[in-house]
Amino acid sequence: MFDLTKIPIGIYEKAISNDLSFYEKLVIAKRAGFDFVEISIDENDERIKRLYMNEKELKEFKNIIEEAGIPILSMCLSVHRRYSLGSTDYNIRNKALDIMKRAIIFSNLLGIRTIQIAGYDVYYEKSTEYTKNMFKQNLLQAIEWASKAQVMLAIETMDYELVNSVNKALEYVNYYNSPWFKIYPDIGNLTAWGFNVENEIEAGMGNIVAIHLKDTLPGQYRRVPFGNGVVDFVRCFKKLNEIGFNGPYLIEMWSSDKDLEISYNTIYNARLWIVDKMRKAGFKLE
């Protein structure tokens, strides 16, 4: 049973060695004290296939989650870098929409609450007014589907100028004006861009549904160990506490370790590090 007395802290699937089975990843996450896992549907064909499982396969996948005893509450849908919603190629846009539809159905069936949308119109093409308009148009279709399935779509503040701030994300939120489309800020990305993160958090008040946690350096958005970057976690947590945001929080990391125990120790220590910063900011945790 989900514990409503706790602020939920989750871990990104890719923070755990990909040499392990999905079940093993879930078991490690639970053992390390996390409340949920964020599943990855990225450009990798094996992860994309998850959205195309048949009824029997889906049932088996759901049983794995239930047996592990830890929920999948969110999905990082970064596959849209490969199949972009704003692509100039109709076939790519069509594939992107099919993936979006299947991700929503998949989430509805498995109890996933939030799908994180990458704020890219295109990734491997040149961004133009056309690609931006196509992105906007196809997001409208995605929001219509998500509304029917009661699945939240949340746009992330990215390492990409189109949506690199909460204020830019708000332009989309205000345009669609849907309760099923909100913001998923990444305080690491915001810091790496040089934004005043406290101001960004305050601007998003009432529209933030989850927070990505990672350390960064100016212009370096990934793979900076906690404590080696410039993110002021305590100040960010103080502002989030001030606006009454109670979660969920998601630790985003990438693992290249093959050893189970190394994976476990890495995410376990990362959670302890984050919890320490949250406590210093005034959060009351276990």
Automatic annotation (TrEMBL):
Domain of life: Bacteria
Domain Xylose isomerase-like TIM barrel intervals: 28-257
UniProt key word Transport: no
Keywords: Isomerase
Coiled-coil residues: none
Gene3D superfamilies for this protein: Divalent-metal-dependent TIM barrel enzymes (3.20.20.150)
Pfam families: AP_endonuc_2 (PF01261)
UniProt-listed GO biological process terms: L-ascorbic acid metabolic process
UniProt KW Isomerase keyword: yes
Designated name of the protein: L-ribulose-5-phosphate 3-epimerase
Organism: Thermoanaerobacter uzonensis DSM 18761
Organism lineage: Bacteria, Bacillati, Bacillota, Clostridia, Thermoanaerobacterales
